[in-house]
Amino acid sequence: MADTFVNARTASPETTESHFRILDFPTELISNVCVHLEDDDLMNVRRACRALKAHSTWAFGKRFFQHLVAILHPTSLAILLEIVRHEVLSVFVREVTISGEIYGFTIAPKKIHSRPHLAIQASIKNSGLDILILLEAFKTLRNLASVRIDVDSFWRSCGIKCGRVYLYEGNARDIKPVYHPEVLYNRVYEVVFQALHSASVAEGVSLSVKICTGSYGDDSISFFNVQTPAWEKSFAMRLRDVEAHGTMDTVWLHRLICSATDIHSLSLHSEHNMFSFARTTGAVLQWPGLRRLHLHEIILKHKDFLPFLRGHSLYLEELHVDSVGFLDGNWVEPLEAIEGMPKLVHLSLMDLLERTHYENSSSSSYMFDMEGLGGALSFRNDPRGITSALACLRGDLQTEPMYCYPSPGSIYTDDLEAYVNLRKAEALSQGWLSWIDGEWVMASAPSSPPISSIEDVLSDVLEDVEDETETTST
Question: Domain F-box: where (predicted)?
C-alpha cells in the first residue's frame, strides 16, 4: 500500500492526466464559443480540423456572410453567384448591396487599366448577363431581407466585397470613389430594379437607395423612373432608406420621396436647393417608421417642416441638421418640437439659418467667444444632455448676422442673412455655465454639474421667460 502511494506521488503528469479534448464538448457549446472569438482566432479554429470547421460554421456565416456587396462586373458577380449557390453560406445572407461599376463614378481605377474594364462593362451590358445573375441571386436567397443600391459600398462597406481582391493590385483600402460627369447616369439602379421585378421577391424584402452626383450634378439629372407601375405598386412600398447627395432634379427627388410609404432613414444633402416635406396636394409627409433624419445644406419651407417634425416627434431617434435655413419662418418652433422628442438620443445642430436677424437674449454672444466653443451642438446617446441644451437655447434665443462667426459649409445667400447662436447652449453642455443668484455665470474651467440640477435650473429659467412674455403681451 505504501509503495502504491509513493509511486502515485512520483509519477509523471503524463501518466496521471488525460489530454483535454475540445471535441468532447457539445456541438452547441463549441458553436457559442466561436461566436465570441476574434476574426483571426475564428479562422484558425476553422483550419484546425474538419470537425471544428463544421462546428464553427454558424459563427462564421453569421459574422461574415450576412451582407454581400457586388458591382456590375463579371468577376464580382461570379463570386456573388458562387456564394448564392452555396448550400450552407447562402442561408446566412440577409442583405445584398449592388454598388455600381468598377470604372467611372463608383471607384477610382488605381493601378487598373481602364480600357479592358470598359470593354467588359459594355459586353455585360449588351448581353444582359448582369441582370440574369442578379435575377438568380434574388430568387435563390431565401433569407434575403434587404437590397441596397449605391455607388460607394464596394470600397467602404463592412460587408463581404465580392471579387475586390481579384480586381485590385496592392491595398484595396486606398481605393476612393471618383466622380465623372459623363457617368452620372449610373445604370445600376435600372439593372437591380429589373432583376428584382422579374424575381418577384417576397414582400418583406426592403429597399435602400443612395444617389450621389458629387459636384458635377445639374438640375436635370434623374436616375430612374418613379412613375412606372412596378415602382408605384412594389418598390415605393419597400423603400426604407434614402440618401441623396448633390445637385439633381429636385422635382424628381421630391416625387421619389413622396412615393415612399414608410421611410425609416432619410438623408438629404441638396447643395442649397429648396425642398418641401409636403405632397403636391398639400398634405405633410408622414412615415410611421422614421427614426433617422439628416439634412445638410438645404433650404426648407417652414410651413411644411414644422408639422413634419411634430408629426414624427414621438419616434425620431437621430437628427442631424447642418446649414439648413428657412425663407418663411424662424427656428423658434422647430427647436421646441425637437426638445419634445422623447426618443431622441443622437442630435447634431450647426448653422441654423434664417432670413432676418433678431436678438432676444439677455446676454451678449461675445460672453461665449472662447476657444473650444465652435457654435455647434453634438450629442451621442445623451438624451438628458439634449433636453438641457435645447432648454437653455430656447430660454435665451438669439441670432447673429452671417458675418459673425462664419462657419465653413454654411449657405451664404442674399436671402439667408442670420443664423441661430448655439454657443450658450454649447457652453452649458461642456460645463462652462452655472446658474448663480438668478443669472448665468461663466466658470473659470469647465465642470460637470449633476444633470438633475441643470434641468431644475433650466425649468426655472423657462418659467421666468414665459412670465416675461405674458407680461409684455398683456
Answer: 19-68
Return the pLDDT at 427. Answer: 83
CA distance 172 to 452: 49
pLDDT digits (tens, 9 = 90+) for 257-305: 999 999 999 999 977 788 999 998 989 999 999 999 999 999 999 999 9
Count of CB atoms situated within 10 Å of the CB of 116:
10
Count the Cβ atoms, other than its own, within 10 Å of residue 465: 16
HSE-CB at 59 with a 13 A cutoff on CA atoms is 24
| pLDDT at position 119 | 79
- Give me the half-sphere count of Cα atoms (radius 13 Å) on the Cβ side of residue 57: 14
**C-alpha gyration radius of the chain:** 29
Q: Are 105 and 178 in contact (CB under 8 A)?
A: yes
Rounded-to-10 torsion of CA 90, 266, 392, 363: 130
Mean local confidence (pLDDT), 197-204? 90
Mapped onto helix, strand or coil, the DSSP state of residue 368 is: helix
CB 288 within 8 A of CB 314: no
CB 70 within 8 A of CB 77: yes
Looking at residue 450, what is its pLDDT? 41
Write down the domain spans for the chain.
Answer: 30-64
How large is the angle between the packed helices 114-127 and 129-140, nearest 10 degrees?
70
C-alpha to C-alpha distance for 399 and 409, rounded to whole angstroms: 18
Per-residue cell: 64: 461574415
Cell 398639400 locates to 282
d(C-alpha 211, C-alpha 440), whole Å: 46
Residues 173-187: pLDDT tens digits?
A: 555 555 544 445 578
Beta bridge mates, 239: 207
Query: Cβ of 144: how many Cβ atoms within 10 Å?
Result: 23
Nearest residue to 391 (alpha-carbon basis) of 462, 332, 468? 462
Q: How many whole angstroms separate alpha carbon 351 and alpha carbon 295?
A: 11
* Mean pLDDT for the stretch of residues 230-248: 91
Question: Strand pairing of 160-161 and 95-98?
Answer: unpaired
Choose among 388, 415, 417, 378: nearest CA to 401: 417
Report the alpha-carbon distance of residue 297 to residue 322 in Å, rounded: 6
Q: Could you read off the pLDDT of 56-73 as tens digits, one per residue?
A: 888 888 888 999 999 888
